[in-house]
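Quick question, first post here. What does this chain look like in 3D?
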Amino acid sequence: MKRTLLFIFLLNLGLMVSSQSVEEIGRAFGSADVNKIAPFISETVDMDICGKGGVLSRGQAAMMLEMFFAKNQISSLEILHSSPFENNKQHVIGEYIAKQGKFTLIYKIDRRGDLLFIRQIRIDKSS
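> Answer (accepted):
Ran it through. Tokens below.
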């Protein structure tokens, strides 16, 4: 009985940590802080910001995000959709609102063990 309760507790704790990390990624994008986003970016990431990008290293992706954030200062970020993890993958869709306009932000996350990695980031100007 004690082992079962301990297992359930540890399982729930693991789910809370993953959940907090997903929320942490959302908060990092919401603050437009590359220093908070960069640790979650995979070693290589498929990135497209308004038609520019490709498969980039973590450092290149961080620089590209930093340039985007500098040109498009955030007013708010609203998460419109967040899928549940399936096969250790999740995608998030948000609306990034800046003084310069609205953008659709999509990022995809992989879970590897207890760690989360952003494997794709796409930002498009909304009409």
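Residues 2-30 form the longest helix (29 residues).
Residues 2-125 form a domain with the Nuclear Transport Factor 2; Chain: A, fold (CATH 3.10.450.50).
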